[in-house]
Design goal:
This protein has about 230 residues and is α+β, with helices and mostly antiparallel strands. The chain contains 8 helices and 6 strands.
Length: about 230
């Protein structure tokens, strides 16, 4: 899966990583991590080069090797600052099983940082990630959660993330141990259930409870008296 404001480099990253892993019957977690890290960083350097250095006929190695002597400290520093501001501006969420059949989940983000999330057994990327993760942590989702409940919690996290740049279309897939992907039950049915009975709502007695609490516990503070001038 991928997310980002600039997805123009997504296909080249995936193709380069796929090519690096070609010819292997089974890949380890570290194999996949290294392939994605190298592909991501390669595309980032290409983007930086195209955006700043190409107009001078330079690549990154040439700029770092001779840029200071060729441009002088002030211009070199300004150009390096420009390069440092450029990001690939996309991220990847990768999951699967290694050569031993163990499941893994990891992310790759700027500037090519790979993070493993096996400890939690879940993660999210994109503009709705914080909302989705908050929902899953709140529900104490983990790898031991029974399947029907896991499906609901995951769908709920997606519904909670909607409206923050996340659309309302939802596709839920189950990846079986044998490698087959099967479509889940209708997300519309799940969303209707969540909207009717699961979506957080303000309890009907909240207004009265808050009013009573304010009357009982609120203390009015008088401003301190100022000494005469």
């Amino acid at each position: 899966m991928f997310a980002g404001n600039d997805v123009s480099r997504v296909v080249p990253v995936v193709k380069q990583a796929t090519n690096a892993l070609q010819g292997r019957d089974r890949c380890s977690r570290t194999d996949v991590e290294e392939a994605m890290r190298m592909a991501f960083q390669h595309q980032l350097i290409e983007k930086q080069t195209d955006s700043v250095l190409a107009r001078y006929g330079l690549n990154m190695a040439e700029f770092l090797g001779t840029g200071l002597s060729n441009f002088g400290e002030a211009i070199f520093s300004a150009m390096k600052y420009q390069l440092d501001q450029i990001q690939l501006d996309c991220s990847f969420l990768i999951f699967g099983r290694d050569e031993l059949g163990d499941a893994h989940i990891l992310t790759v983000e700027d500037p090519g940082v790979v993070c493993n999330h096996d400890l939690y057994g879940f993660w999210a990327i994109g503009s709705g990630a914080n909302r989705a993760l908050s929902s899953l942590f709140f529900q104490h989702y983990n790898i031991a959660t029974v399947e029907w409940k896991a499906l609901y919690y995951i769908a709920e996290a997606k519904f909670m993330a909607e409206g923050s740049g996340v659309g309302d279309k939802t596709l839920v897939l189950i990846k079986r141990r044998n490698g087959h992907s099967v479509a889940c039950l209708s997300s519309r049915l799940l969303k209707n259930l969540w909207q009717d009975k699961g979506q957080p709502k303000i309890p009907t007695e909240t207004e009265a409870t808050v009013a009573a609490s304010l009357e009982k516990e609120f203390i009015e503070l008088s401003p301190p008296e100022l000494p005469p001038t």
